[in-house]
Amino acid sequence: MSRPLLSLLTFLFLSIICNAFSPENPTDRKVLVLLDDLSVKSSHSLYFQSLQSRGYDLDFKLADDPRVALQRYGQYLYDALILFSPTIESLGGSLNAAAILDFVDSGHDLILAADASASDLIREIATECGVDFDEDQAAMVIDHTSFAVSDTEGDHTLIAGDNFIQSDVILGKEKIKAPVLFKGIGHSVNPANSLVLKVLSASPAAYSANPKSKLSTPPTLTGSAIGLVSVVQARNNARILISGSLSMFSNRFFRSGVQKAGSTINHGRSGNEQFVTEISKWVFHERGHLKAVNVRHHKVGEADEPSIYRINDELEYSLEIYEWSGTSWEPYVADDVQVQFYMMSPYVLKTMSTDQKGIYYTSFKVPDVYGVFQFKVEYKKLGVTSLSLAKQIPVRPFRHNEYERFITAAFPYYGASFSMMGGFFIFSLVYLYHK
Amino acid sequence: MAKSSATKDAQALFHSLRSAYAATPTNLKIIDLYVVFAISTALIQVVYMALVGSFPFNSFLSGVLSCIGTAVLAVCLRIQVNKENKEFKDLPPERAFADFVLCNLVLHLVIMNFLG
């Protein structure tokens, strides 16, 4: 191979690597989309186009394609996975539920959409993420009070949901005005899993049952305990979106108008496009991804970081927090970042001041206790990546020559001791020479 | 009158004690005076600590213990040089005083170390 060609290939290869997910550039780049059949590609094209227009490289594959693979030679080929194949019973190639969960465990993102015909495989993946779909295979979410008004009376399974989570980070700053159309299955979130959040819940009057049969026993899932769309942010900051409705992402729902039952307002377009776009931005780390850099601490009036502190030292602690905006790191502004000075339990807990440019700083006095302490920042807030920083620092007691000498309050004691010595001398003289 | 008789008894007791003490040899009286001086200095420091607080606690301890130690050593000397004490009649008073001086030196060495 000639040299110019080789260097060109190296350059291309490097540029591919540099575009992939990295701590410096956390937005996903390459996304694998697994579909039941390729018609979904056109029926959901608006959603896929919105992703492509934001720079994602979508790779469409049939879910049972035998060549489909998430990794090759131990390297993941994709940064995120969109699973729009609710009916698939077994995935193609070497892919299975465990492989998808491994993908998530290694910090990659997942969007999963189920449907009324959701397969056991899809349910299993959702369950592993803390989302339990209704076990009744034929059940759908039915709501007789907040369904979307349509020409035919219908069975009220097309829901106009507006019970959103209150979070600017997850759903964007702009309020979603129109209700979101949803037609699919409901889920409950595992109460033991603290990482999963319901983003869109059903109305208090909703229930999950088979719309075609008569309701003979009370439904197991009722009211706002039903989640329609949920997200998970794992401890490794991998993000997962689980929706009970694939049609929520479809062009038909994007373009459709919506009028909620009992309301006179007829929205020309449903909130689906805004809702789905904003939440995809969050899942693909365009929002709410933090990094902390330049963690510093030093004594007041000094610049160098000491290897050890003494009890009662005054110290200053600072760090910088930036949020990824999708293209660059922007200063993160909040007033609730706290630092702990920690040894088994926090001895000092201080809320840090910020200069609004990403720098957080505070100063405090080392407690009157020596031992091995840690500077800890545990920042866990709804929607943003959790920051967990710990830096170990020992604290020593006073050296012997660092104690205060000649304390005024102790002068009487000094006086007494010396008068005892003088007294001893005089007593000895008097005792020896009397008479 | 019960009260006046009690007062009279106390006076009589006090007089008898005083006349008995007057017979004490002078060297023992000097030691007694020295002990009273040490104890009262210790009491003054305790009262001062109660008022000011125990902050330089090591200084307080060394101040008080130097007084108590001195008093204890002086009492030991008094026992050994008392002629009426048959137990120590073989011990010469010079030896007793030398012991007293040595112990005092050790005591004040320790006190000086602990005072600062």
Automatic annotation (TrEMBL), chain A:
Q: Where are the transmembrane segments?
A: 411-433
Tell me the first and last residues of the signal peptide.
Answer: 1-20
Q: InterPro entries under this entry?
A: DDOST_48_kDa_subunit, OST48_MD, OST48_N
Q: Which GO terms describe its cellular component?
A: oligosaccharyltransferase complex
Q: Which Pfam families match?
A: OST48_MD, OST48_N
Which cellular compartments is it found in? Answer: Endoplasmic reticulum membrane; Membrane
Chief location: endoplasmic reticulum
> What are the record keywords, sorted?
Endoplasmic reticulum, Membrane, Signal, Transmembrane, Transmembrane helix
Biological process GO terms, please? protein N-linked glycosylation via asparagine
Q: Give the way it sits in the membrane.
A: Single-pass type I membrane protein
Which pathway does this chain act in?
Protein modification; protein glycosylation
Which parts of the sequence belong to the OST48 middle domain?
297-435
OST48 N-terminal domain segment(s): 30-283
Task: Tell me the PANTHER family matching this sequence.
Answer: DOLICHYL-DIPHOSPHOOLIGOSACCHARIDE--PROTEIN GLYCOSYLTRANSFERASE 48 KDA SUBUNIT (PTHR10830:SF0)
Similarity field = Belongs to the DDOST 48 kDa subunit family.
Q: How does it assemble?
A: Component of the oligosaccharyltransferase (OST) complex.
Protein role: Subunit of the oligosaccharyl transferase (OST) complex that catalyzes the initial transfer of a defined glycan (Glc(3)Man(9)GlcNAc(2) in eukaryotes) from the lipid carrier dolichol-pyrophosphate to an asparagine residue within an Asn-X-Ser/Thr consensus motif in nascent polypeptide chains, the first step in protein N-glycosylation. N-glycosylation occurs cotranslationally and the complex associates with the Sec61 complex at the channel-forming translocon complex that mediates protein translocation across the endoplasmic reticulum (ER).
Protein name (database record):
Dolichyl-diphosphooligosaccharide--protein glycosyltransferase 48 kDa subunit
Q: Which organism is it from?
A: Capsicum annuum (Capsicum pepper)
Automatic annotation (TrEMBL), chain B:
GO annotation terms (biological process): protein N-linked glycosylation
Topology with regard to the membrane? Multi-pass membrane protein
Tell me the first and last residues of the signal peptide.
none
Query: Where does this protein reside within or beyond the cell?
Result: Endoplasmic reticulum membrane
What the entry lists under InterPro entries is as follows: DAD/Ost2
Q: Name one GO molecular function term.
A: transferase activity
Pathway field of the UniProt record reads:
Protein modification; protein glycosylation
Q: Which GO terms describe its cellular component?
A: oligosaccharyltransferase complex
Primary place of residence?
endoplasmic reticulum
> Which keywords fit this entry according to its UniProt record?
Apoptosis, Endoplasmic reticulum, Membrane, Transmembrane, Transmembrane helix
TM regions (residue ranges): 33-51, 57-77, 97-115
UniProt keyword Endoplasmic reticulum, yes or no:
yes
Q: What does this protein do?
A: Subunit of the oligosaccharyl transferase (OST) complex that catalyzes the initial transfer of a defined glycan (Glc(3)Man(9)GlcNAc(2) in eukaryotes) from the lipid carrier dolichol-pyrophosphate to an asparagine residue within an Asn-X-Ser/Thr consensus motif in nascent polypeptide chains, the first step in protein N-glycosylation. N-glycosylation occurs cotranslationally and the complex associates with the Sec61 complex at the channel-forming translocon complex that mediates protein translocation across the endoplasmic reticulum (ER). All subunits are required for a maximal enzyme activity.
As for family, the record states: Belongs to the DAD/OST2 family.
Q: How would you summarize the oligomeric state and partners of this protein?
A: Component of the oligosaccharyltransferase (OST) complex.
Record's protein name: Dolichyl-diphosphooligosaccharide--protein glycosyltransferase subunit DAD1
Top-down, what is the taxonomic lineage of the species of origin? Eukaryota, Viridiplantae, Streptophyta, Embryophyta, Tracheophyta
